[in-house]
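@channel anyone free to eyeball this complex?
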Amino acid sequence: EDQVTQSPEALRLQEGESSSLNCSYTVSGLRGLFWYRQDPGKGPEFLFTLYSAGEEKEKERLKATLTKKESFLHITAPKPEDSATYLCAALRGTSYGKLTFGQGTILTVHP
Amino acid sequence: EPEVTQTPSHQVTQMGQEVILRCVPISNHLYFYWYRQILGQKVEFLVSFYNNEISEKSEIFDDQFSVERPDGSNFTLKIRSTKLEDSAMYFCASQRSETQYFGPGTRLLVL
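replying in thread with the prediction:
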């Protein structure tokens, strides 16, 4: 069975304090690893797709990386508006689009 | 920028009643999905839909659930006889290429 586990469950940072979120996955024949941001009461908002080990994607203060077993979301000099739940999701190669989500990391950035 | 829209934003129903949740996917997308998120839990895949057929469904998606694309723009999820445990946030997503874009969700409360 496909599994995606995120850590930590919650992360509190001071504004400007860089850190990383982890996403470990056990998925047969990974076709893609996705990162989403979710604000309270809203739908997941797409951030990145990673397809192969060693790949990196960047957007503003966020950088996502992928290895054969895990993905990291690095947040550089975060701001309070980066506070949200960050979700990762894995897509199996044989699937018709079923994403398997982790439970998310709740990020709070204090000014 | 095109967005997935969902209606209603909130729905309260009595146990045993039928509900229909509606979604308007992004116009040139071809693949459609429903997910749900019970409060405090992971986002869970329900069903994928392509070319007017179900491509894949989860164990959650039993005979009480059905999906339909009644016209060129809407995509619906019907729950025939709601149960208390169906209370959740329901997200519609549409896809082009490998990326799924999510709507804002419908919060369903079954009393």
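from a first look: The interface with chain B takes residues 31-32, 34, 36, 41-46, 49, 87, 89, 91, 95-104 of chain A (CB under 8 Å).
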